[in-house]
Write a sequence for this structure.
């Protein structure tokens, strides 16, 4: 049961990390392999603020969102937007380049050691509930990520911005004709996706670890979430994240020898038989 | 005369929509046959069924009396059932010479040969010469396909199909979009296609239909609406009502 | 007859141009002239062969792959294990590496060919990751993260012993590279190779002129995998060691970068790219040993932003001038 709960917490972090990618990939049709770099930026923002300037953990979280979101806006305006119409291969090459730069750059600025984040007293330790050992921090993650998930769903499905985004993606020309500021919608979406990744990176630093190789290590996880979950909505990626989280935690606990093998294989199988994701109504 | 290509009660449904409704059709040997019908009549679906890109919901297709309903598209081409496209489908990165080289090599069964340089066999080059001359492409063989005049591209479109030595050639609006100045050359080339090639012309342009076809089949709402000689069809009041009338307005 | 003459020009695709011959003569001249650089030149020959194998599927058949190193790695491990457990004859080892990679390529081709571009990128990446994970976890066989040690090779053809300075290793790699390059070069100007170009340009039409698209793609994917496998095997044999790094993601990315630098679809792009990549790597890693990947990344970003096509056309233009009209396919 504890494993189940840990897996859920892990999966939820993955979802917050990856949901931005599922928007850029699914809605904007942009393959952003550098998504993990934004997550890493958030994680490092938190680490620096806490370890160098002594900020409390929770107070750093807004900045863990804002810093990558700003970097996102900057890069979107200057670089990414030029490639919206490029081939997937070009997008992949471009973002791999960004990943290499982010990895080496972070290493240069921050050193290659993993960053440690010391959680506040009230978030550490475990308590017992209905016979389950529940980590306080994991519960915190589940709650925060749960709220974020619900909020995201509401924004995408119920607000004017959500419908504008969907219109902009469906047919940018028509949307422009209707007076929707397509460029701005894309920019805000990209920024929000990057910010959420950063938040995920900060929240997950304790679970996933944080070092300069983060974008490479977790790239495949994000891609799994998005490809397995499909890109037509957020429910698919959410379910996929939970399954992936639980499977990964359980796998590492019960069959450590197999490692990530099972997960990769599942991804390939899903991609081959359901190329648009597991949860797409065909 | 006997039929070379036949369909028997051919049906294609997309979900609840019936795009092809029990079409029984025959193309005779050496035919000059036109398939007409208003937009959305199901002509494209019908062609895709014939070439094997789509699988019929029910019904049969046969070529020379052989059932080809379950034969793969590329195998149908090798059996002599070849199509052209309404919108040019050319190989942008290749010259016309290379494209014809691929088509002819493939037709002669050398497509998977990797040991020989392409075009070193006289049987291949002779056939390319023949096709290129017939379609007046000799002068542009080494130009970039994308740089060709539209009329030449249109000729190449048909030449590629012809290089497959079709017994049945499906021409999908061959003259579509060709500027007036280049039209005569194209129409003349089509008119001079060998008699033993049976041709089904899918066309909107009634002038071309009447000048080219001996027989006409009219498709409306996926159903075979009328079938007959040019004179019969052009005098059929029902056809005039649903199709020719529309054509006058449109 | 003028028509005949025009059409007969088709076979000139296969003709060796002067610049090509000069290039290979220069490569041969590096054997006696650049003796102190043989180790690095060996590496270049190996990654160039790897890049050429990727060009066969990317440049000619239009299959984008993020995991081509799966075949490089499979070839390397197969050759290493073959040397340890079966026989340490180098040539047989190459065959083993090629065979292992070809089997893997053939098997995975069916997964890769099903999807569109994006799915292909993911599936190829996934296949390489799975192999990396297997190599990592099957430590008893592969040596795991420490790499496969104890790969000792017998003399080539029983006569030429591998030496410490890599002289024999270089000649061996260069000869193997040249032989496979000639094969690849013949493939791309054959009817088979041209049918791949047709598929790349327009799969719909390719099918409509009777080309069995999937069969052809499976064939070239398998061939490409086999050649990548030989490249991996060469590395295992000349280094006498297989590092788990042969299956690392960056190797696939590096090969893509080489093709991006040198251009796709004319085979020499892989070689130009490999030389440029290695030179860059050497310069950058002297200048900034730990962070050279930053600049590699920056180059990728810059190239894509400027436009691969534009750069490619530039490179092609230079080559076309060197090679005479038309270039080598």
């Amino acid at each position: 049961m504890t494993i189940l709960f840990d897996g859920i917490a892990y999966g939820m972090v993955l979802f917050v990390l990856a949901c931005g990618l599922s928007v850029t990939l699914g809605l904007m049709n942009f393959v952003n392999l550098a998504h993990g770099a934004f997550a890493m930026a958030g994680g490092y923002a938190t680490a620096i603020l806490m370890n160098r300037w002594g900020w409390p953990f929770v107070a750093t979280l807004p900045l863990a969102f804002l810093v990558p979101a700003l970097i996102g806006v900057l890069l979107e305006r200057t670089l990414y937007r030029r490639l919206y119409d490029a081939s997937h291969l070009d997008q992949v090459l471009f973002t791999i380049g960004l990943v290499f730069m982010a990895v080496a750059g972070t290493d240069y600025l921050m050193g290659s050691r993993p960053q440690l984040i010391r959680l506040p007293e009230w978030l550490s330790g475990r308590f017992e509930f209905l016979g389950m050992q529940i980590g306080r921090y994991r519960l915190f993650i589940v709650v925060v990520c749960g709220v974020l998930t619900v909020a995201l769903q509401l924004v995408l499905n119920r607000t004017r911005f959500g419908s504008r985004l969907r219109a902009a993606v469906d047919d940018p020309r028509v949307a422009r004709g209707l007076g929707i500021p397509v460029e701005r919608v894309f920019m805000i979406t990209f920024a929000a996706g990057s910010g959420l990744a950063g938040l995920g990176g900060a929240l997950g630093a304790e679970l996933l670890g944080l070092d300069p190789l983060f974008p490479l290590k977790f790239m495949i996880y994000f891609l799994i979430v998005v490809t397995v979950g499909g890109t037509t909505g957020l429910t698919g990626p959410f379910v996929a994240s939970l399954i992936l989280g639980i499977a990964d935690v359980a796998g590492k606990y019960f069959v450590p020898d197999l490692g990530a093998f099972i997960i990769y294989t599942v991804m390939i199988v899903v991609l081959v038989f359901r190329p648009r994701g597991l949860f797409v109504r065909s | 005369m006997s039929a070379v290509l036949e369909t028997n009660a051919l049906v294609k449904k997309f979900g609840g929509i019936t795009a092809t409704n029990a079409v029984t059709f025959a193309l005779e040997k050496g035919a000059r046959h036109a398939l007409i019908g208003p937009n959305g009549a199901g002509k494209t679906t019908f062609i895709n069924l014939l070439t094997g890109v789509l699988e019929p919901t029910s019904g049969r297709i046969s070529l020379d009396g052989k059932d080809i309903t379950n034969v793969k598209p590329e195998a149908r081409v090798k059996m002599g059932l070849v199509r052209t496209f309404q919108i040019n489908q050319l190989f942008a990165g290749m010259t016309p010479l290379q494209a014809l080289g691929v088509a002819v090599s493939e037709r002669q069964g050398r497509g998977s040969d990797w040991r020989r340089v392409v075009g070193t066999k006289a049987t291949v080059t002779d056939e390319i010469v023949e096709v290129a001359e017939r379609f007046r492409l000799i002068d542009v063989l080494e130009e970039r396909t994308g740089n060709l005049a539209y009329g030449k591209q249109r000729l190449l479109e048909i030449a590629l199909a012809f290089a497959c030595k079709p017994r049945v050639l499906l021409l999908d609006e061959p003259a579509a979009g060709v500027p007036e100045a280049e039209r005569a050359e194209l129409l003349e080339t089509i008119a001079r296609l060998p008699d033993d090639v049976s041709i089904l012309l899918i066309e909107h342009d009634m002038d071309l239909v009447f000048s080219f076809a001996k027989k006409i089949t009219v498709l409306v709402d996926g159903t075979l609406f009328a079938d007959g000689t040019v004179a019969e069809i052009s005098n059929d009041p029902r056809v005039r009502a649903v199709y020719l009338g529309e054509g006058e307005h449109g | 007859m003028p028509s005949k003459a025009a059409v007969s020009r088709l076979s000139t695709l296969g003709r060796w141009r002067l610049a090509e011959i000069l290039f290979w003569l220069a490569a041969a001249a590096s054997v006696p002239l650049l003796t102190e650089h043989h180790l690095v030149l060996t590496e270049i020959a190996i990654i160039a062969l790897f890049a050429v194998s990727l060009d066969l599927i990317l440049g000619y058949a239009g299959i984008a792959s993020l995991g081509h190193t799966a075949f490089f790695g499979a070839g390397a491990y197969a050759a290493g294990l073959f040397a340890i457990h079966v026989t340490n004859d180098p040539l047989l080892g190459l065959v083993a590496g090629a065979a292992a990679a070809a089997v893997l390529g053939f098997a995975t081709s069916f997964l890769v060919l099903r999807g569109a571009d994006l799915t292909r990128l993911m599936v190829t990446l996934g296949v390489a990751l799975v192999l990396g994970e297997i190599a990592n976890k099957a430590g008893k066989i592969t040596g795991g993260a420490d790499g496969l040690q104890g790969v000792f090779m017998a003399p080539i053809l029983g006569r030429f012993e591998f030496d410490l300075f890599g002289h024999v290793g270089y000649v061996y790699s260069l000869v193997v590279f040249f032989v496979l390059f000639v094969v690849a070069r013949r493939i791309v100007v054959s009817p088979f190779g041209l049918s791949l170009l047709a598929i790349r340009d327009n799969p719909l039409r390719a099918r409509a002129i009777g080309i069995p698209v999937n069969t052809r793609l499976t064939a070239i994917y398998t061939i490409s995998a086999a050649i990548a496998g030989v490249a991996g095997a060469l590395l295992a044999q000349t280094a006498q060691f297989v590092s788990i790094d042969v299956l690392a993601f960056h190797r696939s990315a590096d090969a893509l970068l080489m093709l991006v630098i040198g251009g796709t679809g004319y085979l020499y792009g892989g070689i130009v790219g490999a030389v440029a990549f290695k030179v860059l790597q050497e310069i950058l890693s002297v200048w900034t040993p730990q962070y050279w990947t930053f600049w590699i990344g920056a180059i990728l970003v810059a190239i894509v932003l400027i436009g691969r096509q534009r750069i490619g056309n530039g490179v092609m233009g230079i080559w076309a001038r060197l090679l005479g009209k038309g270039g080598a396919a």
Summary: Chain A has a mean pLDDT of 83. Chains A and B do not touch (no CB pair under 8 Å). Chain A has eleven helices and two strands. The two ends of chain A are 34 Å apart (CA to CA).
